[in-house]
Amino acid sequence: MAVVNRIAGFAEEMTAWRRHLHMNPELGFECHDTAAFVVARLREFGITEIEEGVATSGVVAIIEGRGDGPTIGLRADMDALPLDEITGVEWSSTRPGAMHACGHDGHTTMLLGAAKYLAETRNFAGRVALIFQPAEEGPGGGRVMVEAGIMDRYDIGEVYALHTMPGQEVGSFSTTPGPIMAAVDTFDIHIKGRGGHAAYPHQTCDPVVAACGIVQAIQTIVSRNHYAMQDLVVSVTQIHTGSAENIVPDTAYVNGTIRTFEADVREMVHARMREIVAGQAASYGVEVSLEIAVGYPPTVNHAEQTARAAEVAGEVAGSAGVDTARIREMGAEDFSYMLEARPGAYLFLGQGEAAGLHHPGFDFNDAAAPYGASFFAKLVERMQPSE
Question: Which residues make Cβ contacts (< 8 Å) with residue 135, sequence separation at least 6?
Answer without folding.
Answer: 28, 29, 31, 55, 56, 79, 141, 144, 334
